[in-house]
Specification:
Oligomer: single chain
Largest sheet: 7 strands, mixed
CATH topology: Rossmann fold
Number of helices: 4
Helix content: 25-40%
Number of strands: 7
Shape: globular
Length: 182
């Protein structure tokens, strides 16, 4: 038997072009079986680009998608542990919205370039990543979006949270696709 197992994947850390042409780290997982497939951008939570985020990306690949999580904290703390990188990003005021949109656009462009990409893309995130998924779906053309308990879409964040976190509910008329909010 030479057929590739349907749940066989390749997962690796790569470099993509993000906002402003910056090279940033990203975690990519793709099925090994040939075929056409959609792509999913997973946006990590405030604690960062951690083991759990990478596991979510791998699970999407096992389910048949090209999947990627851009490391939104690549610039603040290259090569640092997720905790240290998240602390550095918070100290810098958080990820600016326009940079987030540029990094997600770079992730989509990389997914679009993969063999078998069918041109359909979704975005998902949880906690602050849920807010970012909503922002991305209001700023870029997506086919589907999932906001898992996204923070600070409607209300101001409490004291001590990153300055970049501002309410973004007013962007709803720009939503490019169906949105599932959990």
């Amino acid at each position: 038997m030479n057929a590739v197992s349907p749940d066989a994947i390749r997962a690796e850390t790569i470099t993509i072009t993000g906002h402003g042409g910056d090279e940033i780290e990203a975690y990519l997982a793709t099925p090994l079986a040939e075929g056409t497939r959609g792509g999913v951008v997973w946006i990590h939570h405030m604690p960062g680009y951690d083991r759990e985020t990478k596991e979510f990306v791998r699970r999407l690949a096992v389910s048949g998608f090209h999947a990627m999580a851009p490391n939104l904290y690549s610039r603040e703390a290259p090569g640092a542990s997720p905790d240290d990188a998240a602390a550095a990003a918070r100290a810098a005021g958080g990820v600016p919205d326009e940079r987030l949109v540029g990094d997600v656009a770079g992730a989509v462009e990389h997914l679009r370039s993969l063999p078998g990409a069918n041109g359909r893309f979704g975005v998902i995130g949880h906690c602050s990543g849920g807010r970012h998924a909503y922002l991305a779906a209001c700023s870029l053309p997506f086919d589907a979006a999932v906001d898992c308990y996204g923070a600070f879409i409607v209300e101001d964040p409490p004291e001590g949270m990153p300055k970049a976190m501002k309410p973004i509910l007013q962007l709803a008329p720009n939503l490019s696709c169906p949105l599932l909010g959990l």
